[in-house]
Sequence to fold (147 residues):
Amino acid sequence: MPPTETGFQGMPGSRHITEELTPDKCWELLTSHQTGRIGYVDDGTVQIFPVNYMVHQDAIYFRTAEDGALGRIMPQARVSFQIDAADPVKLAGWSVLASGTLEHVQDPALVTFLAGRVMEEPWAAGLRTAFIAVHPETLTGRRVYMA
Fold:
């Protein structure tokens, strides 16, 4: 159905409201989940992996295998981390995207702290002893819901 003279009234999505989320709300949502997706470009191809994670002091941490795809990402590489939720019954949802640099955690005190935190086990098979940090430089989010 094409737009009418009154605009897009009656069109799919015309009763939806899109709300930009504040950085504080984005951090709140990040701390409320345990599984997200890490994405980066490797040899011209976008790679995206699900990871179990935790938030600590304005960074996102996850465990991986040192010799796995995520463990081989170079320090200071540009990455993005994303979480979301959707409710198809309410036609609503939200998404948070954190983009920044990746760091292999080397500080023994921080590794000990992270290892001692309650964190969901990685779903992937194998030994996951390397901690990786994502330090967001940009943090954006949006919520969509019915008016």
Q: What stands out?
A: The chain has one domain: 32-146. Residues 1-5 have pLDDT under 50 and may be disordered.
